[in-house]
Amino acid sequence: NGPRMPTRTIEGVVSPKPENEYNDNDFRMLQLNSKAKHVLFCAVGPNEFNRISSCGSAKEMWDLLEVTYEGTNQVKESKISMLVHEYELFVMHDSECISDMFTRFTTITNSLKNLGKSYSNQELVRKILRCLPKNWSPKVTAI
Questions:
Q1: Which domain of life is it from (predicted)?
Q2: CA-based diameter of the chain, in Å?
Q3: Kind and range of the H or E element at 110?
Q4: Helices 58-70 and 24-43 meet at what angle, rounded to 10?
Q5: Secondary structure (3-state) at 9
Q6: Where are the chain's structural domains?
Q7: CB 58 within 8 A of CB 36
Q8: Cα(90)–Cα(109) distance, integer angstroms
């Protein structure tokens, strides 16, 4: 949940602890935050590095990256809603080959899965079979 700056309470007033009063747990928490920041710095590209380099804690960095790439919860729900709509209306186009159709379908389902909405394999197979054009009926019946 972010860095825990070591503090002390004197007569009900909370103030930062001087470094010479840090205990083992204080050092451990600061070290964990530093390690997490280092991992994030090493994991991101130059653009993301510039975006997160001014953050004070690994938690701030993570939250900024999360909002940047996933959006807020409202944005996430909106994306899920849009993709579910796309999934429900999915059909194979007349001039489309089966591999292109499957690629489009997989893109939609993978995007949904990345946002936390997934379907069972059985549901996915049924959906694909239902979206095939009429000339595929004999093959669908055989399956």
A1: Eukaryota
A2: 82
A3: helix 98-114
A4: 30
A5: strand
A6: 7-70, 73-142
A7: yes
A8: 11
Q: Is residue 96 within 8 Å of residue 106, measured between CB atoms? A: no
- Encode pLDDT of 114-124 as tens digits: 988 999 999 99
Rounded Cα distance between 22 and 7, Å, is 9
For residue 143, what is the DSSP state? -
Contact 45, 66 (CB under 8 A): no
Q: pLDDT tens digits, residue range 74-132?
A: 888 899 999 999 999 999 888 889 899 999 999 999 999 998 899 999 999 999 988 88
Reported pTM: 0.56
Q: In whole angstroms, what is the distance from residue 113 CA to residue 27 CA?
A: 39
Q: E-assigned strands of 11-50? A: 13-16
Which residue's structure tokens are 């380099």?
A: 53
61, with CB counted inside 10 A (0-12, 13-18, 19+), is: buried
